[in-house]
Write a sequence for this structure.
């Protein structure tokens, strides 16, 4: 309450300063003085000075007698100064005194009313100030509510995205767990198969060592059994056998030449045929003429096949005993064809 009273006093002083008057509640000067008592109450500056402020209880409500007092004051007749009757003068003095008291009371009522107006004005300003503060606080609260709602939406979005990430992470975790189990099974199978392979390898190594030992024993037995006479007899037998084949081939060749000569004598254009089997050469089939590259002799495909198993590396010519090597991949087909004999 003391602070409110101070604000009211400052407001009254400001209002008096702005109006340019000496006092906020001073009454206007009167044009004339009707009595000695009134003259004493006037100060040198022409303003009326009352005997003292009357203590009036201010209960915050307007005085209801103000209007009646103003009516009585206005209804009072103006006394002339020419009346010289003492009784009339006393009654006039009494009336002026009553008027002075009435004016004093009216001034006090005016002061009280002004004080109440100033208090109401200050209360109004204070209410407006608090209203503005409340409005600003309300706007600030609305802004904060909007900001919090926006943050709530952002948090909800973040929460939903984190939920999605958590779901994906759980799915990835399940997938990785399944993959880990599969890899564990594969690793166990791999180590089991590796152990089996090691066992099989050790077993194969033992069998190989055993077979090597057996081979060494067999070689030792062969070296003990074999002798030079047996080798000599075998070589002589093979040589005699080869000579017999060669003599047979020469005899067959002579027979073929004689037969060829007879055919030429009988037919001016003799048929060309193999010198071993006397089969006519043809462009296709097993009668195709094949040239032995090393010696140049020509044999049919059938005769070359019959001579092929005797030599693992190629074909040995039955006429000159020259070895012609043959490709293992192509076989007899690698030998060139003699197209001059079939043209």
């Amino acid at each position: 309450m003391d602070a409110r009273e101070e604000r009211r006093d400052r407001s009254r002083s400001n209002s008096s300063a702005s109006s340019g008057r000496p006092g906020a509640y001073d009454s206007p000067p009167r044009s004339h003085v009707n009595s000695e008592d009134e003259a004493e109450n006037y100060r040198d500056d022409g303003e009326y000075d009352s005997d003292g402020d009357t203590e009036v209880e201010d209960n915050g409500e307007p005085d209801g007698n103000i209007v009646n007092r103003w009516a009585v004051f206005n209804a009072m007749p103006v006394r002339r100064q020419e009346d010289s009757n003492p009784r009339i003068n006393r009654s006039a003095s009494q009336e002026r005194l009553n008027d002075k008291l009435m004016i004093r009371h009216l001034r006090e009522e005016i002061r009280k009313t002004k004080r109440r107006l100033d208090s109401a004005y200050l209360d109004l300003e204070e209410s407006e100030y608090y209203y503005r503060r409340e409005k600003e606080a309300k706007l600030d609260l609305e802004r904060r509510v909007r900001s919090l709602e926006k943050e709530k939406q952002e948090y909800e979005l973040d929460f939903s995205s984190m939920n999605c990430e958590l779901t994906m992470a759980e799915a990835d975790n399940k997938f990785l767990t399944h993959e880990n189990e599969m890899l564990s099974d594969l690793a166990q199978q791999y180590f089991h198969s590796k152990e089996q392979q090691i066992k099989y390898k050790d077993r194969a190594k033992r069998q190989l060592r055993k077979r090597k030992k057996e081979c060494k024993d067999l070689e030792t037995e062969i070296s003990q059994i074999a002798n030079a006479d047996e080798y000599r007899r075998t070589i002589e037998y093979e040589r005699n056998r080869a000579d017999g084949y060669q003599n047979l081939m020469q005899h067959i060749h002579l027979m073929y030449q004689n037969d060829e000569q007879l055919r030429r004598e009988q037919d001016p254009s003799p048929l060309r045929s193999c010198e071993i089997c006397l089969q006519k050469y043809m462009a296709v089939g097993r009668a195709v003429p094949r040239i032995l590259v090393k010696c140049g002799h020509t044999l049919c495909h059938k005769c070359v096949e019959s001579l092929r198993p005797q030599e693992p590396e190629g074909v040995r010519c039955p006429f000159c005993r020259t070895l012609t090597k043959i490709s293992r991949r192509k076989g007899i087909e690698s030998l060139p064809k003699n197209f001059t004999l079939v043209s």
Q: What stands out?
A: Residues 204 and 210 are 10 Å apart (CA to CA). DSSP finds six helices and four strands in the chain.
